[in-house]
Design a protein that fits this description.
With 279 residues, this protein is of the alpha/beta class. The chain has 2 domains: 3-147, HUPs (Rossmann fold); 156-275, 3-Layer(aba) Sandwich (Rossmann fold), CATH 3.40.50. It contains 9 helices and 12 strands. It has helices spanning 15-28, 58-86, 99-108, 131-139, 165-177, 203-213, 226-234, 252-257, 261-268; strands at 3-8, 31-37, 51-52, 55-56, 90-95, 112-116, 144-147, 156-160, 185-192, 218-223, 241-245, 273-275. The protein has a 10-stranded mixed beta sheet with strand order 5-2-1-6-7-12-11-8-9-10, with helices on both faces. Helix 1 runs parallel beside helix 2 (58-86). It starts with a strand and ends with a strand. Mean pLDDT is 90; it is low at 250-257.
Length: 279
């Protein structure tokens, strides 16, 4: 891996995004970019904050804009100070275009995008997954690491595998991008329907593949409904566990009837999620 991009809302700076990105950059000796989405249509104030008896106050507007500019500058410094100490190379991007469009464009030119799973780029809080994260994941051009609000150094990797090409693709991408983490405790989790065997899907091919990528990986075959069974298993894991999973993209009609596994894990766990899908 050559480049990691950490995405930030300068008005609501995510320290965990910074810390995970710096940790991975240090592990991989990779160029680190702090991408600040200073969307010109997004501010800390609302229009009614500017209203006085005579209408919109130019003085209030100027004061709020100066305050937001100062907040964003302070956020950039909060990223830059530790990045300059920990990363071999780093840079900062400021983009005033629409946040979602700017970040999708950034994703074309990076190997891995790191972002807080609760990011909204909006005033209000939202239930997970937020609309911003849904939109980003459905059209990102690189793998994404969604991080919780509390940073914890990664000590264990869990690879979710369901026999589909997308899950193998995610494992490949994680292996290619972060080979420095292959020494960590690694577990492959697969879920079979009740009443079926405990064999992995494509057992021989999968184990042959894994032998070359994660030769020390352990295998856990669970039975039941995948979403429920996996969530129950992951809730027993320590917060320093990172989850690797595949396809997020699904047609709009399909999403009406069934949530993405990524959606479920964002709601039900507080673990970092490495998501990659083949298109």
């Amino acid at each position: 891996m050559k480049k990691i991009t950490a995405a930030f809302d300068g008005l609501k700076f995510s320290k965990s995004t910074r810390d995970y990105a710096i940790y991975l950059s240090k592990q991989t000796s990779t160029h680190l970019v702090g991408a600040f989405m200073d969307d010109s249509t997004y501010s800390s104030y609302k229009i009614y904050d500017l209203i006085v008896n005579q209408g919109v106050s130019a003085e209030r507007l100027k004061a709020f804009e100066e305050k937001d500019a100062a907040t964003r500058n302070a956020a950039a410094e909060t990223f830059e100070n530790p990045a300059s100490r920990q990363s071999s190379e780093y840079s900062i991007h400021h983009n005033r275009n629409f946040a979602i469009q700017a970040l999708k464009h950034e994703s074309i030119y990076t190997d891995l995008l790191v972002i807080d799973s609760k990011e909204t780029f909006a005033h209000h809080k939202e239930e997970l997954p937020t609309r911003f994260i849904r939109d980003l994941l459905s059209d990102t051009q690189c793998p994404v690491l969604l991080v919780p609000q509390k940073y914890s150094p990664v000590k264990k990797i869990i690879l979710l595998y369901d026999g589909e090409p997308s899950s193998v693709h995610a494992i490949k991408m994680f292996s290619y991008l972060l080979p420095e983490l292959k020494h960590l405790d690694t577990e492959v989790i697969s879920v079979n329907s009740t009443g079926t065997s405990l064999h992995l899907p494509d057992n021989k091919l999968m184990k042959e593949f894994m032998k070359r990528h994660y030769p020390k990986a352990k295998y856990t075959i669970l039975k039941g409904i995948a979403e429920d069974t996996i969530v129950n298993h992951l809730k027993k894991q320590q917060e320093n566990t990172l989850i690797v999973l595949g396809a997020y993209r699904r047609s709009t009609v399909s999403r009406w009837f069934r949530e993405s596994m990524a959606d479920v894990l964002m709601k039900e766990t507080k673990l970092p999620l490495f998501i990659a899908h083949n298109k």
